[in-house]
Amino acid sequence: MKMREIKYIEAVNEALKEEMERDKNVFVIGEDVGLLGGGFGATKGLLKKFGPMRVRQTPISESAFTGLAVGAAMTGLRPVVEIMYLDFITTAMDQVINQVAKINFMSGGQVKVPLVIRAPYGIGTREASHHSQSLEAWFVHTPGLRVAMPATAYDAKGLLKTAIRGDCPVIFIENRMLYFKKETVPDGEWLVPFGNAEIRREGTDITIVALSNMVPRALEAAEEVAPEISVEVIDPRTLVSLDIEKIVNSVKKTGRLLVLHEAPVRCGIGAEIIRQVVEKAFDYLDAPPLVLAGANIPIPFSPVLEDVCVPQKKDIVEMLRKITK
Fold this sequence. Notes:
Blueprint: E1 3-7, H1 8-22, E2 26-30, H2 46-50, E3 55-57, H3 62-74, E4 78-82, H4 93-100, H5 103-106, E5 116-121, H6 136-140, E6 146-148, H7 153-165, E7 170-175, E8 182-186, E9 198-201, E10 206-210, H8 214-224, E11 231-235, E12 238-240, H9 244-254, E13 257-264, H10 269-281, E14 290-294, H11 303-308, H12 313-324
Parallel strand pairs: 2-3, 2-4, 4-5, 5-7, 6-7, 10-11, 10-13, 13-14
Antiparallel strand pairs: 1-8, 6-12, 9-11
Helix pairs in contact: 1-7, 3-4, 8-12, 9-10
């Protein structure tokens, strides 16, 4: 199989292009998705190839264009909405929570909403509180939505194609700190199923479940402690559906669990993962399962303070040694 190197953002662009070529019902809508290619270039070149009917540039009005996309999806089209920053989805929460997530249920399954909402997030770009939030737990908490958080270019493309082809609404959260990292991937197209976690590194002493940009950070920390601690690193890839079976099987082997994410630790997805692990594998735990996550404060603009608010490699190394002591 021929291999090549691409960036995460290029993988997203490829997925959109391939799905728009495959299915004329797929269209893209959002701010600056036309000539500018979206906030970070994910839709670059799509306007020229598919025209303004399928690449819909909008005013700054997330509630309006998300609502438009909901209606379009109900008619059988397959919109892919781009929210320039995940933070801005808050202005469209009525459409997302009260409409997108509920229409299929409230119609008794008669109306499907094949809608994907893409949004970048991530801490480290020095953009302060209004552009640095990690909101995945809100959507995991909302019945009717599926949630994906790919950590690699391979998964960004494969999961996005799966999301676009599905009949369930998906919140597709991309970490902008990963956008321009290169990765070796196969040529052609591929799909990645939801609900299938990936073991990024095998180990026997402790299990780390890491989300998105915490995956490479966890791998770096695991490498640093390798002579003394054998760390297994699991990337869930999707939070709804969550592959809890793979996580539980890992914990049964290692006896210890650490969950890593950027979102504030309070009521984050780490708490839900630990709840499920305790229910299913309590007797296998040799130490209390812990979450290492963001601070419970708005993200500051100062680079020094921003870095303190989210786990760094040194924090992960320290926690690994503490749990396995």
